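Thread: quick sanity check before group meeting

JM: Hey all, I'm pulling together slides for Thursday and realized we never actually wrote out the predicted structure for the chain we discussed last week. Dropping the sequence here so it's in one place. If anyone has concerns about the input, flag it before I start.
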Amino acid sequence: MDNDKLPLNQGQQIQRADDADEGLAIGEIIAVLMEHRWLIAAVTALFLLLGFAWTFVSKPVYRADGLLQVEEKSTGMSALKDLQPLLGDSTTVSAELEILTSRMVLGRVIDKLKLDIEASPKTLPLLGGAMARRHKGDELAPAFMGLGSYAWGGEKIQVDSLRVPRSLLDKPLSLVAGEGGAFDLLDEEGNLILKGQVGTRVEEQQFAVFVSRLVARPGTRFVLVKRSSEMAVKALRAQFAVKERGKKSGILEASFTGPDTEKIVAVLDDILNTYVRQNVEQRSAEAENTLKFLETQLPALKKEMDAAEAAYNNYRQSRGSLDLNIETQSVLQSLVEVDNQIVALRQERDELRQSFTAEHPRVQAVDQRLERLRERRKQFDSDVNKLPDTQQRVLQLARDVEVSTTLYTNLVNTSQQLRVSKAGTTGDVRVIDSAVASRDPIGTKKSVVVVTSLLLGFLCGVVLVWIKRSLRVVIEQPETIEARMGLPVYATIPHSRQEVEIQKRSHGKNGANELLAISNPEDDAVESLRGLRTTIHFALLDTQHKSLLITGSSPGLGKSFISKNLGAVLAQAGQRVVIVDADLRKGHINKEFGLRRETGISEYVAGAAEFEHVVKPTSVPNLWVVTTGQIPPNPSELLMHLRFEGLLEKLSEQFDTLIVDAPPILAVSDAAIIGRHTGATLMVARAGRHPIAELEQAVKRLNHAGVQVKGFVFNDLDTDRQRYRYGYKGYVYRYQYKKS
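JM (edit): ok, ran it. Output follows.
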């Protein structure tokens, strides 16, 4: 439709709609948020309440910290550095990190501190734990609301041993406190397992328990769990963490978290001490294994040394006193040195073969060194062969004595050093800082939780509003009707709080007569109806009948509100106006004017009442009303009667304006029947009540019946929202008289 062919106000409104649709304005966003501000406030309050509840019921978690140092040496004595090849390579930090979290270390801690036994009082779900933690004093807290089976603060239990069948590992058992330190142990189904007494070990079949301490009122329940070794280690690892403080610093920072500060300090200290202890034991065990190997070699070397000395002495006695010249002594020293090196490398190779295969690079490196020493040995042998036979024999015997004596002496010294090393081993790690617990709980602070819940609640409220808005396909603005349907909106009636109050009072006073146009003529809605009065005057100029049909697509749109208040506004302008309540099913205009329903359309069409009796005056000057009369069984047939058509014609002749309030067109066909006998038809649309397709279907149904819709009246527009959207109250302007 060309805007030039439209009425002035319609073209301006379409242009305004086009401008508004250019993008999602900030004002529109603010308008939507303000429209649903109570929903957003409710969601925000809910999240804020949940945040406060979380801070109340959440269990505080503390952390204990400690420091370890990993040294790159394998013995505690600087004098034994030459034993380094025998005792292995220096420890790496990454390996120590794995050892710290291994089952070997953590398992010892679990066994020592009995961490595989969990015993805790049973508290009321949600709030019970928080209330018990906040109990002060040594006395037991009184049972809340008589719930004596739950713990409310001050209850204590210490279980030193617990044995259950394998099938009940990691499953909760119940311990019920009794009189005088007695207790009952129950399974998950509540069946009695055994009865016991504090301070006495109780055994029965596959069960055994020793409770050393129990402070609770009779009937209080405790939860006992015997953890399997796998689950106990897993739970301990979840609370334990260790990392290297600085790259290649050798300083390990260990931490342990939990709700009990005394317990986490004790557990972390025991983990650190157990780790240091196993490290010392490992180094001591390595020294002991090497010592055992050397002790197996010493007897054989002692025999070889004795045999070499005996052979050398016997040969000298048989040949007399023999002395070695300087050249022979030099050869002897070289031979002894090479032979000692060969023997030492063979021992080193035997040590390596205990840990590596023959193809290992370290073993092959030793083999290559042995091969080079054997080549040197062959050279010395060629030099010895050049000596006289006597000198050769003496040299050989002296060499055997020297080599065996040197080797035996070195092994004896090494074994003595290993014994000293074993006794004084301190390990490669040490505790720098013992465990200390934090004074304040770790994790998110309560104030942060509250602020976060507040922001999260607001965001969720906004998201909920936008989802709700996305799911709503209803019309919010009158421009949508004009742009999509090509029909003008003659008036936009803003929402009236005064009308809402009138409706409440009307229901409370059993239908007392009160009109907004009379009781509050300065209301914005009434002012909009005055604008509609002028528009209707021009709309009826080219019509044959001075009558106006007001209908809608569905019930609850406010068409009766428009009809009666428009009639009052027209009457106040000096026109003679009559309102016909043609809703023969649910018409109620008579109530607003304090009139009875009887003697109306039904009676007139049936011939039971005269025209003068049907037209009833109201308290408003120049305003008359024709009521529905008795509710007929066949309203549509009654409206199609010729007497109803004659009634409308008489009313048009005797009054300046005739307003017919008809039922909704999509509900019944009455409006289509009446529309043929009226001059103009207006549809009432209500903001936020129907999709555009509903209005299109209503107009199409009227058009098929031969009734042309002149335009729309857009009712119940939220002007507060429009103020945020456009910067003023939409299409509604206030211009009121101010009393001086």
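AS: nice. The chain is about 50% helix and 15% strand. Residues 91-96+105-258 form one domain.
JM: adding both to the slides.
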